């Protein structure tokens, strides 16, 4: 899409919607190359053309039909007011486990299909206050339960780079939508690796922040300990600007009190192209596969490491002693889901279509792939008194110590590894060998970002995206964003998918 507003000078610079950023949109609005209404219509047209038609990505569960009206209202604001809104007119796709007072919040579930909460969740409220326009809500792995993005309400989402593969998950609808230029910003939730998985699978940037940096209030919960909320974007700059809007204390999520005094003036301020110069990154060998199936990912990682070295980084190959034992069976979901889900339903009051997990299961309307998980969670009684649960919490502390020890002993700025040992799987297969456990089990921040593509094939003419992940100590988001930004600018590996070209 290119737009030129009547009355401009001859031969003006053209605004191109595809791969647009916050900065490029704001520049085009300020130069009167485009209106907010035209911008939003451009994204809605792309959703109409490509989500259920053409490649049929099936990424969107619902379009916000008030978005054009909201955009028209923004066009009537004076320039000074617009300038004070850091996300003025920026379209956002919300994973459909984020509460919205003007649209259903379904979790991808037939049972919750008509649920409209009384208020926006904290992150949604912050985004709207910053001027963003919610353009759509995206499909997800039902209730965010696992990693392939299929639900009873929305069906299977497809990867825009390879329509035979999944887009990762559980935030795969957001990932496919942002990759395909259905919006500029997207939200994800990450209990295991559900922000970083779709970022890796769709050549995007995904931020799982330090536990307590971003509120989880107003998001359908999975695990009170492991849940995290964060950005999914095409560029590091946009992820940083989005983090500026959503980070901070929320009384409804008491753990965010720990973020007090830990946020910079802006996460975007410290982004420099030379951040890799002099950096020491620990390439975690425990997360690199050794079999033939791992070679497509390993080749991309090797190329990225060469690029980082050329940009001035020192890459130290490291391992964590007893890694397998430290990282095995640390998920708290089965212990925490029932109580958290019941509390969420209870807070909805009369708006809730069911009152408990038992009632939800009794309806039988969920996707078959999550049945075993739901039934296992249903059986848990008094998890806080479970010896196994308490032992897992202690083991998570052991992992925190091990990670910090390897960082300190090797004087590292961050750990580096592929987010997945193998390529994202074909539709119908279970996604295995993901490397999200370090962040979800320690509470440390991690960022996934594009590393490159595997070799092209008939089904993936650009290849399949491969994502790198960097992890650092608590509150190290500024440093991690800086490192990812330097690689983004120096390597320039992101390419938009061929399945969703510009509309003519």
Please explain how this structure is put together.
There is one protein chain. Strand 4 (91-95), helix 5 and strand 5 form a beta-alpha-beta unit. It is built from 16 helices and 15 strands. The protein is globular, with a radius of gyration of 21 Å. 33% of the residues lie in helices and 13% in strands. The protein has one domain: Amidase signature (AS) enzymes (Alpha-Beta Complex), CATH 3.90.1300.10. Helix 2 (36-50) runs antiparallel to helix 3 (67-75) and helix 11 crosses helix 13 (371-378). It is α/β, with parallel strands linked by helices and 504 residues long. The protein has an 11-stranded mixed beta sheet, with helices on both faces. It has a two-stranded antiparallel ribbon with strand order 1-2. Residues 4-11 have low confidence and may be disordered.
Would you tell me which CATH topology applies? Amidase signature (AS) enzymes
Main sheet: which strands, in order across? 3-5-4-8-10-9-14-15-13-11-12
Shape: globular
Second rung of CATH, namely the architecture: Alpha-Beta Complex
Overall pLDDT = 96
Distance between the termini: 7 Å
Low-pLDDT runs of 5+ residues are: 4-11
SS strand fraction = 5-15%
Number of strands: 15
Give the class from helix and strand content and strand pairing: alpha/beta
Round the Cα radius of gyration to an integer and report it: 21 Å
**CATH homologous superfamily?**
Amidase signature (AS) domain
What is the highest CATH level, the class? Alpha Beta
Count the DSSP helices: 16
Number of domains: 1
What profile does the largest beta sheet have? 11 strands, mixed
Helix content: 25-40%
